[in-house]
Specification:
The protein is mostly helical. About 65% of the residues lie in helices and about 10% in strands. The chain has helices at about 5-15, 20-35, 40-55, 70-95, 115-125, 155-175, 175-190; strands spanning about 105-110, 130-135, 140-145. Strands 1-3-2 form a 3-stranded antiparallel beta sheet, covered by helices on one side. A hairpin with a 4-residue loop joins strand 2 (about 130-135) and strand 3 (about 140-145).
């Protein structure tokens, strides 16, 4: 390949494209940072968003699913229930004179290979008190999750199953028919065993 073609390929890749969703998201963040909604702040946010997306183009995320309203409600409701119950559990452990000692990291192999789902699952798991994703390996499709009170093999398996349950709810809320089939087939196989 000639040097000119290589240079053309690099420059066309570096230019990026018009990313309206990213520009709007950055404009919203800009307005929130100023803590005042004005026309000037909104226009400045759009300009800054357009400049940033041209200088630092965001990679595209492959998403072939669709939003399923009822499973999305289930996902959101279950997240808030988990959030409240985990917060209570962590508060009790904090106030206990003899809190449980230790904690463990568990490797969770996700069933559906999708960066968007991995990001959502990581956020949902990390936002619940008592658990946090310490590493995500995109190429292996694996999350490493720390549980603050997990000290037994049964606790490790329970934490792994909790993360896989979050994955199931995310895929049911946002997945394509193929992704739904993959998650439902494995869930059904575990329930039958």
């Amino acid at each position: 390949m000639s040097p000119r073609r290589i240079g053309q390929r690099i420059s066309s890749r570096a230019r990026g494209g018009f990313q309206p969703r990213a520009i709007i998201a950055l404009a919203v963040i800009w307005v929130l940072l100023w803590d005042r909604i004005t026309i000037g702040n909104a226009v400045n946010g759009l300009i800054i968003g357009a400049v940033i997306t041209q200088i630092f183009p965001l990679p595209s995320i492959q998403y072939f699913g669709r939003i399923h309203p009822w499973p999305l409600v289930v996902l959101t409701t279950r997240f808030f229930v988990d959030l409240v119950s985990a917060a209570i559990e962590v508060s009790i452990a904090t106030l206990d004179r003899h809190p449980p000692k230790g904690g463990s990291i568990v490797e969770v192999q996700l069933r559906v290979r999708n960066e968007l789902y991995m990001t959502i699952i990581s956020a949902l798991v990390s936002l619940v008190p008592g658990s946090i994703v310490v590493e995500a390996r995109r190429t292996a499709n694996v999350l490493y999750v720390h549980g603050f009170h997990v000290t037994t093999p049964e606790g490790l398996e329970e934490l792994r199953e909790d993360v896989l349950a979050v994955e199931t709810r995310v895929v049911r809320a946002l997945g394509s028919p193929e992704e739904l089939a993959a998650v439902n087939d494995e869930t059904t196989a575990k329930e039958d065993a």
